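in:
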């Protein structure tokens, strides 16, 4: 089996610099990151810095986001060009509904997937069905980044969502919630991650989707919680 792309969403380390965040991810023994825009603006002038840090710490920036996407071809093309130069595989996004024809062209031209992120109850992309409806008849490179915490809050089982998405699952934000729907360390809440990973394997997206821990608690000192979450996931897989 190919290697799982397991890493950390750098928002978990939002009080750190990008360099410190990537250093911390490397110290956890991980080789992948999803970087959020406040850590790395999507400007071509930032590409050299990003690639130098990747090389220094041995951590690949495999995904980037979350980015709002509007129907502005010049702006979107710059984002894809930025991602292409770094080697980013997945752009995690919140695209406007009128952007999909444009995204069809860009994802095929650059070979970069767009993964629509669900933001919880009430959001336009709250469930897997919302995403599948939006991407129907569009490129297979447009799919979903499944946020397990937000999905559970919206009343959907992440494993069943992953099954419905199939090959359109390009990213996972690993979060756990308790019965009160509050964030907790992975494994201490109500989400069945064992079942989720079994489904991801069954759909052959195990080595393709970028799967990252997104730990939003304790922003001043997140590493103990991230490490406990990571140990739990490692024991599962």
């Amino acid at each position: 089996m190919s290697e799982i792309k397991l890493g950390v969403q750098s928002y978990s380390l939002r009080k750190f610099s990008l360099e410190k965040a990537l250093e911390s991810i490397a110290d956890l023994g991980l080789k992948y990151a999803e970087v959020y825009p406040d850590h790395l603006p999507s400007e071509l002038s930032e590409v050299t810095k990003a690639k130098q840090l990747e090389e220094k710490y041995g951590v690949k920036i495999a995904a980037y986001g979350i980015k709002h996407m509007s129907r502005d071809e010049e702006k979107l093309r710059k984002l894809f060009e930025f991602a292409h130069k770094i080697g980013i595989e997945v752009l995690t996004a919140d695209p406007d509904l009128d952007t999909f024809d444009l995204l069809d062209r860009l994802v095929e031209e650059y070979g970069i997937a767009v993964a629509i992120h669900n933001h919880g109850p009430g959001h336009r992309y709250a469930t897997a069905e919302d995403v599948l409806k939006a991407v129907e008849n569009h490129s297979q490179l447009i799919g979903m980044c499944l946020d397990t915490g937000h999905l559970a809050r919206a009343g959907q089982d992440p494993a069943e969502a992953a099954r419905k998405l199939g090959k359109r699952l390009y990213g996972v934000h690993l979060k756990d919630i308790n019965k009160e729907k509050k964030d907790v360390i992975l494994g201490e809440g109500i989400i069945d991650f064992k079942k989720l990973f079994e489904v991801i394997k069954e759909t052959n997206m195990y080595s393709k989707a970028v799967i990252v821990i997104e730990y939003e608690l304790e922003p001043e000192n997140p590493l103990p919680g991230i490490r406990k979450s990571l140990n739990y996931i490692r024991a599962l897989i």
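note: Residues 176 and 191 are 6 Å apart (CA to CA).
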